[in-house]
Write a structure and sequence with these properties.
35% strand; six-stranded antiparallel beta sheet; alpha+beta; ten-stranded antiparallel beta sheet; 33 strands; 456 residues
């Protein structure tokens, strides 16, 4: 039985080290697989056969005996576990706008034919219907889409930013996506009016293009003339050469040159429509045109002034724009997908959501760079990079490479090979030992042979 046991022990070692070689081979095979996490195998000894449990020392220290240790024979080795190394892989630039890499913890979420799967691979492309999908399998990338009204128009904040619908679904950016026009509602005027300006001087005109609710451009002109009263100027306005009514026609400066009153002017949308003879400007909000002349918190910088020197007063900015076509997309550190449009605007189009796990090493590999949850991985915790997972960043135009360390794998391969050869040698020697034993027994007497068998 002893020889049979040594054969079994050697066999268990061959099997265990062959499986370890399988793990090493798989790691090396996936050295260039994006998002791949390497695995390692650990061994555990087989159950030991106990021949003697051992005894404690005699209580009689004068004439007794000391304790005797247990007598056990090991029965070989077995696979203890395989563990994934979830360490960060190298992030390499690809210069593809929709490629994404995770720097930190977390996984991208994919919908693969109705099954939610997780992956560190962010090689994403857009299909013909505008859905963002895994370039390998076609699984849909999941996240937040833009919230829309009943007409399909994007809902916006007061600042004009798109609002994301905080419901996880397949991300879709339609090829026909456009940036909707915005009616001009705010204008800023600043610059200097020469304190030496006379009533006989020509008016100072300043013109800017503003946009109506459909994105059509109109020329708004403000004319500034010196009034007869000290520190006062008169204003008049026109749109496309037609007179419009301003909320005030006179502005007054303090003696030291800062603006006294008013700090703002208003042109109602109704007045703009009256001047144009149509309803180009939406007046239902009401959406008046506010013209800021001075910052109440800083009357000298970015405001209208009356100092000695050249007249530089001008309309500096307006917040309207025409419709724009989608030119390109980028991904920011929070996973938001930003669209750049031909009207110069950048808008949020969607956001990739990440999933985190208490025990990511407990996930089950599904092939194709995908994982699914297991009883020991814990439930998925959903959130966004930076916003919810503070130490995690999404890197656009990049992919995370495999974290396989090839030097380590080759070292493990050598040690595994040596152990496999040693196990093979124990089997060979064990196989040869009965042959020599039988040869020796042939020269023994029958009585000695019987005695030997009994002793065995």
């Amino acid at each position: 039985m002893g020889l049979v046991r040594s054969l079994s022990i050697g066999t268990s070692s061959l099997i265990a080290h062959q499986k370890r070689m399988d793990v090493i081979s798989n790691n090396l095979a996936n050295a260039n697989t994006i998002g791949y996490k390497s695995s390692r195998m650990t061994f555990a000894e087989q159950f030991s056969q106990t021949y003697r449990h051992g005894t404690g020392p005699s209580s009689n220290t004068q004439n007794g005996i000391g304790g005797v240790d247990p007598l056990q024979y090991g029965l070989g080795v077995k696979v203890g576990s395989t563990q994934m190394n979830m360490g960060q892989g190298i992030i390499e630039s690809t210069d593809r706008p929709l490629d994404m890499a995770i720097n930190g913890s977390g996984f991208f979420i994919y919908n693969d034919n109705g099954t939610q799967k997780y992956s560190r691979a962010g090689a994403v492309k857009q299909d013909r219907e505008g859905y963002l999908v895994d370039s390998n399998s076609g699984a849909f990338l999941s996240g937040y889409n833009v919230q829309t009204d009943s007409t399909g128009k994007a809902n916006k904040t007061d600042a004009g930013d798109n609002i994301l619908d905080k419901k996880i679904s397949n991300i879709r950016i339609k090829p026909s996506t456009i940036s909707l026009p915005k009616q001009t509602t705010n204008i800023e005027m600043n610059g200097n009016l020469d304190s030496a300006m006379k009533t006989t001087d020509l008016p100072r005109p300043t013109t800017v293009k503003i946009f109506d609710q459909n994105g059509a451009a109109h020329d708004l002109t403000i004319n500034i003339s010196k009034a007869a009263a000290p520190n006062q100027f008169t204003l008049s306005g026109s749109i496309d050469g037609k007179t419009v009514t301003l909320s005030a026609t006179t502005i007054e400066f303090n003696p030291e040159g800062t603006l006294k009153t008013p700090l703002n002017l208003t042109v109602t949308a109704a007045n703009l429509n009256t001047a144009l003879g149509n309803s180009a400007f939406n007046s239902t909000a009401p959406k008046n045109l506010d013209i800021r002349l001075a910052d109440p918190n800083n009357l000298t910088s970015g405001s209208m002034t009356q100092f000695a020197g050249a007249t530089t007063a001008t309309i500096a900015s307006q917040d309207g724009y025409q419709a724009g076509n989608l030119l390109s997309t980028e991904v920011d550190s929070t996973g938001k997908i930003l669209g750049s449009f031909s009207n110069g605007k950048t808008e949020v189009l969607a956001q990739a959501v990440l999933a985190n796990f208490v025990n990511p090493e407990g996930l089950l590999k599904q092939g194709g760079n995908f994982y699914i949850g297991s009883p020991n991985s814990g439930e998925a915790i959903y959130g966004n990079a930076v916003e919810n997972f503070a130490s995690t960043r999404v890197i656009g135009r990049s992919l995370e490479q495999s974290n396989v360390e090839m030097t380590e794998q080759f070292t493990d391969m050598i040690s595994t090979q040596r152990a496999y050869e040693a196990a093979s040698r124990t089997i060979t020697v064990s196989d040869q030992m009965p042959v020599s034993y039988t040869h020796l027994r042939a020269h023994e007497t029958k009585a000695n042979l019987v005695c030997r068998l009994l002793l065995e």
